[in-house]
């Protein structure tokens, strides 16, 4: 299963981790390593065209759906 939001297609993104430690050995350049940012996904049931299906959504989409359902 891919870590992808099925509504907004938010997915895994690569980035850099920078260690801001100041000592003699790291005086000129801080060590950098790659890291991964993964979306915060949640499985919810959504009614689309009368059918209830289970979708993976990120929390941003989930909150938006919850807000729209209250109005």
From TrEMBL:
Protein name: 50S ribosomal protein L28
Ranges in coiled-coil conformation: none
Statement: the UniProt record of this protein carries the keyword Repeat: no
Cellular component terms (Gene Ontology): ribonucleoprotein complex; ribosome
UniProt cross-references to Pfam families, sorted A to Z: Ribosomal_L28
Organism: candidate division WS6 bacterium GW2011_GWC1_33_20
GO molecular function, one term: structural constituent of ribosome
Keywords: Ribonucleoprotein, Ribosomal protein
Cross-referenced InterPro entries: Bacterial_rp_bL28, Ribosomal_bL28, Ribosomal_bL28/bL31-like_sf, Ribosomal_bL28_sf
Entry similarity comment: Belongs to the bacterial ribosomal protein bL28 family.
